[in-house]
Amino acid sequence: MMMALASFMCGLIFGLGLLISGMTQPAKVMGFLDIFGRWDPTLGFVMATALGVSGVGFSLLRQRMTPVLASALMWPTRTDIDRPLIVGSILFGAGWGLVGLCPGPALVNLAGLMPSVLVFVLAMAVGVVAKDLWDRSVTSATEPATSADG
Amino acid sequence: MTEFDPISALVGGALIGLASVLLMLLTGRIAGISGILGGCLTLVPDGRAWRVAFIVGLVLAPVASGLLGYPLPTPQMPTSWVIIVIAGFLVGFGARLGGGCTSGHGVCGIARLSLRSIVATATFMGAAIIVVAVMRHGFGG
């Protein structure tokens, strides 16, 4: 229960960050990605600041053995650069470039109740589930699912 | 509306970083939104409550921001439903296949100096830049 509450607060703060920084607006994201147009550096500033804070925070947390409300710090362990990483990132980037929404900002925008956003999130959910079903059809039941990075 | 505002960008970016650090400090989890969403939508037997709670927090963020004087700006969406559906599917499927999205690889992964995440971020940014260039300027299209 405490873990869910903490997680809810983190989601709320993350969403506030996306909204205040302007990253819920596809126009600003596309403005950053459009390096041949009138370039908008916002996304770069947001990412650099987020990286500064999380980089320092994570390096301090590296010295901790356990989180406050759970039994272990579940740092991602994978280091391999494989085909799914590259192919998945290309597909994700293509979708991101088409509309200017990635999963976080898409979910934050749900509150606006725009039909286009609802359809985008629905299609995104279908994509997420499709990947899971595809995994289940190719891997045997005995093989555990590989851990994701995030 | 899309004027560059460095102060908002810095404050918002710091909040994103803070949320990622707090989630690890409190729950021991990485703030990767596509991964968290995946855990919600696919039938993972345990560890579902914290994931659902995080997503609910994200979805309710505009309510909190409204109280703070930052109403949710109306997003500019494409007029083509075909593009919206294709893009949504690619974002969901691609992020899961690649093991993460802008939050999991782009923020948390790079903050951990993970080469895997740096490669993923460079790849999806490159792909997105090419798609925007072709769509807006018609290069090679």
How is this fold's topology laid out?
The complex is a heterodimer of chains A (150) and B (141).
Chain A: H1 2-21, H2 26-33, H3 42-61, H4 83-99, H5 103-109, H6 115-138
Chain B: H1 6-27, H2 33-41, H3 49-67, H4 81-97, H5 102-111, H6 115-137
Helix pairs in contact in B: 2-3, 5-6
Explain this structure to me?
- The complex is a heterodimer of chains A (150) and B (141).
- Chain A is mainly α.
- Chain A starts with a helix and ends in a 12-residue tail after the last helix.
- In chain A, helix 5 (103-109) crosses helix 6.
- Chain A is globular, with a radius of gyration of 18 Å.
- Chain A has helices at residues 2-21, 26-33, 42-61, 83-99, 103-109, 115-138.
- Chain B is 71% helix and 0% strand.
- Chain B is built from six helices and no strands.
- Chain B has helices spanning 6-27, 33-41, 49-67, 81-97, 102-111, 115-137.
- In chain B, helix 5 (102-111) packs across helix 6.
- The chains are: A mainly alpha (150), B mainly alpha (141).
- The interface between A and B is large, with 115 and 117 residues.
Sketch the major β-sheet of chain A.
none
Percent helix of chain B: over 70%
The rounded distance between the terminal residues' Cα atoms of chain A is 22 Å
Number of domains of chain A: 2
- One letter per element, helices H and strands E, the order of chain B comes to HHHHHH
Give the largest interface pair and sizes: A-B, 115 and 117 residues
Largest sheet of chain B: none
How large is the count of helical segments of chain B?
Answer: 6
- In percent terms, what proportion of residues of chain A is strand? under 5%
The Rg value of chain B, from CA coordinates, equals 17 Å
- Which outline of chain A best applies? globular
Please report which band the strand proportion of chain B falls in: under 5%, 5-15%, 15-25%, 25-35%, 35-45% or over 45%. under 5%
Give the rounded overall mean pLDDT of chain B: 94
Along the chain, the helix and strand elements of chain A come as HHHHHH
Round the mean pLDDT of chain A to the nearest integer and report it.
93
From the helix content, strand content and strand pairing of chain B, which structural class follows?
Answer: mainly alpha
Q: Which runs of chain B of at least 5 residues are low in confidence (pLDDT < 50)? A: none
Distance between the termini of chain B: 30 Å
Structural shape of chain B:
globular
Structure annotation, total helices of chain A? 6
